[in-house]
Write a structure and sequence with these properties.
Helix content is 44%, strand content 13%. The chain is built from 11 helices and 12 strands. It has a 5-stranded mixed sheet. Helix 1 links the parallel strand 1 and strand 2. Helix 7 packs across helix 9. It is globular, with a radius of gyration of 19 Å. It starts with a strand and ends in a 6-residue tail after the last helix.
Length: 316
């Protein structure tokens, strides 16, 4: 559980892990150089171990520290402002045992500040399992959410050496899924993903530019895992995904700030016919329509995306 100045939400996140029906667990809390004192949020439980970074090193470094310190067979990640269902670990490990998969993915339930719930992108294969490369394709096509909130067999894990990026989840997933033979899919949404003004997902920050850097950072991983033609197609999908997510963050900013204007302008300049064509050819019709709307009228795009969220949908 990476944490950086998490505030009182940390107490609930920790409690949701420690009250799992599968009680044989270790919770590694990686305090990523917090300036606030997190001690008041920490319960006395022998299963909880705190590891502190002397300075803030970012999400990727915090998860890498956790992986290096873990001792169990399975690893999963829970953010300090989220919560998991009491049966989460039991159900996810049962799916892994039943299928023999090294990775188990599951849908994420989103929770808005007003209590509205939704579900992030979830379009798994028809069967209970698929290949790691198929999972990468689905993630880059916006059919599965790019998130580290999944179950992974520790012996199979590797952590990519990349430049720091706030949105390191995607880099981590592509690097790990590329060499996994089998991914299982648990259909129940047992992870509660909080979206609020202070979260990375729910706000527009300078870190939004990290999304724009993601395709270039992904390119070597894709070239290593796929034939050249498919790697090029998937790289274009990554560009579509990055542009879409950047525009979502801009749409969530209610004020006409300089950052919102700059992000919108940057994205519109990159919404080219080649990008739109790639989105259509890979089945990302909604993303293509959304990017086209943003290119024509950013204001209309913001209104449409906010209405989409009010209906309880939080897919890409």
């Amino acid at each position: 559980m990476p944490a950086y100045d998490p505030g009182p939400t940390l107490r609930g996140a920790i409690a949701s892990v420690l009250r799992q029906s599968l009680s044989d667990l270790e919770l590694l809390l990686i305090d990523d150089g917090s300036e606030e004192d997190i001690a008041p949020y920490l319960p006395s439980d022998p299963r909880l171990r705190v590891i502190r970074h002397r300075r803030n090193r970012g999400y990727a470094a915090a998860t890498a520290t956790g992986i290096a310190a873990a001792t169990g067979r399975w690893v999963t990640f829970v953010d300090a402002d989220d919560a998991i269902d009491p049966s989460y670990l039991e159900q996810m490990t049962a799916t892994a045992r039943r299928t023999g998969a090294a990775v188990v993915m599951a849908p994420l339930m989103t929770v808005q500040p007003n209590g509205t719930t939704g579900q992030l992108a979830w379009d798994p294969p028809a069967g209970p399992t698929g290949s790691g490369r198929d999972a990468i394709r689905r993630i880059l096509q916006g059919r599965l959410i790019a998130s580290q909130h999944l179950l992974l067999e520790r012996a199979q894990l590797r952590h990519p050496r990349t430049a720091p990026n706030t949105f390191s989840d995607l880099l981590f997933l592509v690097s790990n899924l590329a060499h996994v033979d089998q991914v299982a899919y648990e259909p129940r949404a047992l992870y509660r993903y909080s979206i609020h003004p202070g979260s990375v997902t729910g706000s527009l920050r300078e870190s939004v530019w990290d999304l724009g850097r993601l395709p270039a950072q992904l390119e070597p991983e894709l070239e290593h895992a796929f034939p050249a033609d498919e790697a090029a197609t998937l790289l274009r999908c990554a560009q579509v995904l990055a542009l879409t997510q950047m525009l979502h963050k801009a749409a969530l900013e209610p004020r006409p700030t300089a950052l919102r204007a700059e992000v919108t302008r940057w994205c519109r300049h990159r919404i080219t016919p080649a990008v739109l064509t790639a989105a259509v050819r890979t089945g990302q019709h909604r993303s293509a329509a959304e990017l086209l709307l943003a290119r024509i009228s950013p204001a209309a795009h913001r209104r449409a995306y906010r209405a989409h969220l009010r209906r309880g949908s939080t897919g890409p």
